[in-house]
Amino acid sequence: MIRYMLLGLVQGFTEFLPVSSSGHLVLAEHLLNLDPPGVLLETMLHWGTLAAVLIVFRQDIVSLLKSLRGKGRVEQRKEVGFLIVGTVPVVAVGLLLRETIQSAFSSLIGVGIGLLITATLLAVSYLARRRARRAVIHFPDAVAIGLAQAIAVFPGISRSGTTISVGTLTGLTAAQAARFSFLLAIPALFGAGLLHLPEAVQSLGTQNGAGILLGAACAFGSGWLALRSALALIARGRFWIFAVYCALVGGATIVWSVL
Q1: Which segments within 161-248 are labelled E, that is strand?
Q2: What pLDDT band is residue 29 in, cutting at 50, 70 and 90?
Q3: Which of 83, 92, 94, 243 is the most exposed place for a label (fewest CB within 10 A)?
Q4: Domain layout of the chain by residue ranges
């Protein structure tokens, strides 16, 4: 049961903080000698963190859904379209490069390089923050952020860190970039679970149901806390601290992998 709890906590805490949940799951497997989560547990961990986003952004989601019925502003309907546009690249990469992505999870040095990439993006976006004043998202922003999310399918490259950084570099305020990034996480997390669902269903009879539910619950609780913390740090302009963290962990991981 401890294994399920640890994997759930790692997934939840690192999904929304810009430190790469996939990279930390790989590190946890090596450092703690944990077995890989398996397709059913992986699906439930993704959907546990998905539930956290749905709760934190429930008002935004309801407002966007209402806009599709003609009860919202044009800007809201445009944003729904931008979320669809931003989701297309990660779907394409996930389907076309599935085997390549899966093989990347066996490379510690790849995780270390990914974390250094995340650190660089966070640092660059922090330096460019004063020019990021736009609160309205445009089509090119959605494309750029969507491409950033697609790159972040590789372990070590943080989805939230990459998308928020790229959003800031396009000129969006950190708060608006973060809002769009976390809303964009909804189809990404749902799709990540859905991708493994057929295999997960086949393995139902061989899995520890209570352990999987515990892992999902831990992913939800820690994900909710991490998401609220990320939003607070962004509001205070302190998101840059994760650049230092990712640089240190990334460098240590590369050294560890070559020793």
Answers
A1: none
A2: confident
A3: 92
A4: 2-258
